[in-house]
Write a structure and sequence with these properties.
alpha/beta, 6-stranded mixed β-sheet, 5-stranded mixed β-sheet
């Protein structure tokens, strides 16, 4: 029975999507899965290095991977109102002098911030769950937050400066492409098509069978967040685009690639 190496994050949206697949709740056509749970910046770096045949990545790093990987249609995170937020503590800092914390150099969050604030050069790259504390402690002047931190920053006394996703949506009239699933071009095309179809089936299973009672697989990797926050996280990032990105999703990814090309041409 073939074993597939696959990487995704421990966040509720990913564990919700992949639970039925990796835990054999659906017919996996003889495949078993060896999972690697890492933050998305680590997965981005691993993808650049070609470490895993299947992996979640930020769409922000996709232009660096196109020669060696292909995007799957299912399992990704795209949508409206799902983008990263720029936050600060007491007083909105001066963009020309501020230092901002960003969750990884290769992330979509970095690209979206660069689109909105091209003049800001003083950036500190941190793991996403370290950013709130960095802003609270004054180590940085502002921070770009993603994942569950969208639901916790206000109660910690932090303020929203800008929804970077809304900025992208309004500029390109497209949903925000946050992260997707890639497959190595070295894998058999029939295998890739099967894995893509299985991920789609896993998402559909989760919507049908796992939402009212969250799977233990989701809870045990949720970094002690409340069930309410887990559900908010899933509601925000798992949607019809996770089943199939479709033409609208592909258009959004193309738009983000244009941002990447423009940002790197001026860097």
């Amino acid at each position: 029975m073939p074993t597939i190496e696959i990487g995704f994050s421990p966040c509720p949206n990913d564990t919700f999507i992949f639970d039925a697949l990796v835990n054999q709740k659906i017919d996996t056509k003889g495949y078993t899965f060896n999972i690697h749970l890492e933050d998305v910046q680590t997965l981005n770096e691993w993808a650049i290095a070609g470490k895993l045949p299947y992996s979640k990545i930020s769409y922000g790093v996709w232009p660096l991977l196109k020669k060696n990987y292909q995007l799957l249609k299912s399992g990704g995170a795209l949508g409206k109102g799902v983008g990263p937020l720029l936050i600060y503590k007491d007083q909105q800092p001066n963009p020309s002098t501020m230092q901002v914390a960003i969750p990884g150099i290769n992330t979509t969050a970095h690209l979206l911030f660069s689109l909105a604030f091209p003049q800001v050069k003083n950036k500190k790259f941190l793991v996403f769950n370290e950013i709130e504390e960095a802003v609270l402690s004054g180590k940085v002047d502002a921070g770009v937050i993603i994942h569950e931190n969208r639901f916790t920053y206000a109660q910690k006394g932090l303020s929203k400066w800008m929804d970077l996703g809304n900025f992208f949506e309004e500029k390109f009239n497209a949903p925000i492409p946050l992260g997707g699933i890639i497959a190595s071009n070295q894998r058999d095309p029939e295998e890739i098509a099967t894995i893509d179809a299985l991920i789609k089936e896993s998402v559909e299973y989760a919507f049908k069978n796992s939402y009212n009672i969250l799977p233990e697989f989701v809870k045990c990797h949720s970094q002690e967040m409340s069930e309410e926050v887990m559900r908010q996280h899933i509601d925000l990032y798992v949607n019809d685009f996770s089943i199939d990105m479709g033409t609208q999703g592909k258009t959004a990814i193309d738009a983000l690639e244009k941002v990447y090309a423009s940002f790197n041409a001026s860097a």
